[in-house]
Amino acid sequence: MRKSLRDQELYQPLFSPWLDQSSKFANLMADIKPYTVVSPDRVWMLYSLARQACYLAGDFWECGVYKGGTAMMFAQVLSTFRDRRLCLFDTFTGMPDTDPGHDYHRKGDFADTSLSEVKARVGDAPNIVYYAGFIPESFQGLEQTRIAFAHVDVDIYRSVNDCCEFIYPRLVSGGFMVFDDYGFPSCPGARAAVDKFFIDKPECPLVLPTGQALIVKLP
């Protein structure tokens, strides 16, 4: 007789821990759900990688904050690692100009947010820093930064490329870059930018079944 699997209800059909409604993650997901368009399986990937990245020497970056849902999650993960900065980059007024040759999104998409609303949700702890403006101009002055974890959720070709060019050289060994939009048909520019940037790099983008792509910086 086949033995029953432990947590059998979480196999749908494979083990999916983000479905466990009794977990700490479920409570966190419930808090952020109204403020994110990132699905629970993708948030779980970010949550798991962020918890490991806490043990690397470097800052946490999120490029593309929108209403602040995943930033709330990162702030919670870092609540016991206050020596790690959480740097949040967004226009907080919607998307910049897009490239019709690569992107389906248009200027002004995701404008239903504001810096003040995000600050109220994510908090104003000393290790949380907000950078309002256009990428890559909002990166100016951060050239000496070392980065342990970067969540790149900017959707469009130019912005993804600008993030790669600035973040990758500053990513510590063993650090992570997660591209939220890589596998989504609504964001072909994101995938094109990642593939072009890493074509001559030793790291190979790991395409996840969630639609994300992951880079782990080699020594």
CATH topology: Rossmann fold
Strand content: 15-25%
**Radius of gyration, whole Å:** 17 Å
Fourth CATH level, the homologous superfamily = Vaccinia Virus protein VP39
Strand order, main sheet: write it out: 3-2-1-4-5-7-6
Average pLDDT confidence is: 96
* Poorly predicted runs: none
Number of strands: 7
- CATH class descriptor: Alpha Beta
**What CATH architecture label applies?**
3-Layer(aba) Sandwich
Number of DSSP helical runs: 6
Q: Please summarize the sheet with the most strands.
A: 7 strands, mixed
* Shape label: globular
Which bin fits the share of residues in helices?
25-40%
Number of separate domains: 1
Sheet/helix structural class = alpha/beta
Describe the protein's architecture and organization:
With 219 residues, the protein is an alpha/beta fold. It has a single domain, classed as Vaccinia Virus protein VP39 (Rossmann fold). It is built from six helices and seven strands; from the N terminus they run ααβαβαββαβαββ. Strands 3-2-1-4-5-7-6 form a seven-stranded mixed sheet, with helices on both faces. α4 links the parallel β2 and β3. The chain starts with 23 loop residues before the first helix and ends with a strand. The model has no long low-confidence stretch (mean pLDDT 96).
Strand-helix topology:
Layout: H1 24-32, H2 40-53, E1 59-63, H3 69-77, E2 86-90, H4 115-122, E3 128-132, E4 147-152, H5 157-167, E5 171-179, H6 188-198, E6 206-207, E7 213-216
Parallel strand pairs: 1-2, 1-4, 2-3, 4-5
Antiparallel strand pairs: 5-7, 6-7
Helix pairs in contact: 1-3, 2-3, 5-6
